[in-house]
Amino acid sequence: MSEQNRTRITVALAGQPNVGKSTVFNMLTGLSQHVGNWPGKTIEQKTGEFSRNGLNIRLIDLPGTYSLTANSEEECVARDYILRQRPDAIIAIVNTAALERNLYLVAELLVLPIPVVIGLNMVDVAEQHGIHVEAHVLEAALGIPVVPLVASRNQGVGDLLDAVERLLDEPEAFTPNRPVIGEEHLPILEEIRSHLDGYLPSHYPDDWAALKLLEGDTEVTARVREALPEDEWTSTHDLLKQHEDAYLDIAGTRYEWIGRMVRAAVVRPKLGAVTLTERIDRVATHPVWGLALLLCIFAFVFWVTYTVATPIVEWLDVAVMQVVAEQVRLLLASAPVWLSGLVVDGLFAGAGTVLTFLPILVIFFAMLGMLEDVGYFARAAYVMDRFMHWMGLHGKSFMPLFLGFGCNVPAVMGARIMEDRRSQLSTILLTPLVPCTARMAVIIFLAPAFFGQAATFVSWGLIAFNLILLAILGILINRLVFRGEHTAFIMEIPLYHLPNARTIGLFVWQNTWAFIKKAGTLILIFSAVIWVLSALPGGDIEHSLLAGLGRRLEPVGRWMGLGDWRLMVSLLTSFVAKENTIATLGILFGVAEGSGSLAERVAAGLTPAGALAFLVVQMLFIPCVATVAAIRQETASWRWTAFSVSLSLVLSLLGGIGAFQIMRLIGY
Amino acid sequence: MKTLCDLPVGAHGIVRRLQGGRGFSARLAALGFTLGADVVIVKNYGRGPIIAAVRQTQVALGRGEARRIQVEASQGASGE
């Protein structure tokens, strides 16, 4: 047994992107996980705690990174955690099909003073592509435990922990074959090291710091400069200047080392064999056919989403929400009128909104999750790259923007996948122009009454208008705000593989949860606030504070043919949640106004020009409160948030005025 | 010397030089584009991004990025 009786250990989970690391994490921790942010960063931190054989294990999911050099914030976070918190062990997940490249991260981990266990994941996918890896041969070569896994089917995941426990019980058995740097750089490394001796903060191992200096790591260089006395720094700096290009040799020798490690362990398919991935990619990444396929796939996604979700949404609304609301109203019959109003018309309306959108989101995200899991999204990003370049973005921002069609909240959060802040910011700023399901619901509800036969045409036109504006705005933001800085497009194209229900389920859960958490709380609160504004001071909406606000906006509305204060109020309340427009119209047009459906009653007071302007403004109006909150969280800046909101406000007003005036000019 | 952009689909190249800042080169090197590495062109339509295979992984590269990888055309898998 171990020297002290261990009851609690901390294990860090490391790995490159696309290795199924989060699947392993979820298999191990189940639902007992905590999702937060790394201190002071917008990078997600997942931790989980569980018990196993009487041992309490805390598992920390490190950000997925290709290396541990300070090329990105994720990489700094990952290695800072390892160096400062010193977990008891690291589990490094590698993708069997891309073993050599994946071992690059392992090569960096092995020079740190923490024992490492390798999880050889996606063995099944590799086999499908004719790649076979002998785990025990690799284990013998590396001198560290190698556990074969199929995490998506929960095979071998427990063995990982067994290996960790064995390693901790017998620390002296951990004798890894550590990578060494090339002969020609060894004396230099030794010299750098001698300058550092005794000056560095205790959590920086001298060897590691010297290696990172030689690799030109910006963060370590800055830290060492602070720590070293002037003369030591000067001589170190001179030395580093003479060997500026050493980092390429170091990377090269790491790969040479990897080559030696895997040589005996890997069996590859014969050259010339055409794999399934290649066959699919002849179409999927073709500049013309690939684009056609992309459009077909996404049309299919929307078609399935709305075909399946619409009846469920209607059922939820009629059979669940209305019934429950009635019950609550009866229950509160003896309570003061304001209380029943607040609960039923304020809180319930808000909660109902959230609930009825869930089926649409769940189905939409399930479809996207499947496309992501089989590996298609990387191809979509590749095909779209050319177009995204016009906006100073690249293919990778296509994924978060497309999520926006479901809900803007996960789209804004999804912009995290961009490597640099500039691309992340542009993606976030453009997201509100992607029409989400809630805005589409308003269009679908109102357009038929407004435009009759032409409704479908107008709806598509509105979506196209939003996307054209998105492109124009993207180009302008790139030119004016970011001055045409260029962002590198470097993206791994994973092998295709069969979708996994658990992985997709997790994708759906994470994205839907982002919506519920933000929307659920904020929409509820703001629904209550709006109800109060519509009830005060007299309990009569026609003379309420809200109506007063709407009347004050009438002059602005008149430029867009929206002289009716009720229309302005319904637009304002869409700040709470886009589909609130309908709810507000329902309340305001509910009482008098004769017969016909709600949409018809609203349409009766509008010219076609005004109706179009109304829909244009609705599509472009300031993002809903949940999206604004997400923007604030992800940009960590009130200025960018304010910029985004003002941008939408200006665009929507200009759009509305433009639509109305042009329609009038051409005689509507 | 040629760049990765100049090679047709199926051609092999040996990486000889990476241009551009150290951060950029270090990222490429970590992905496997080290000096001496054998790269095969998987997709190159003459415009738009390319896809290159290096160390058994396919990597999409913007054209601007691919142009900064200088290669020497070669006959095929060397040293495997």
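The mean pLDDT of chain A is 86.
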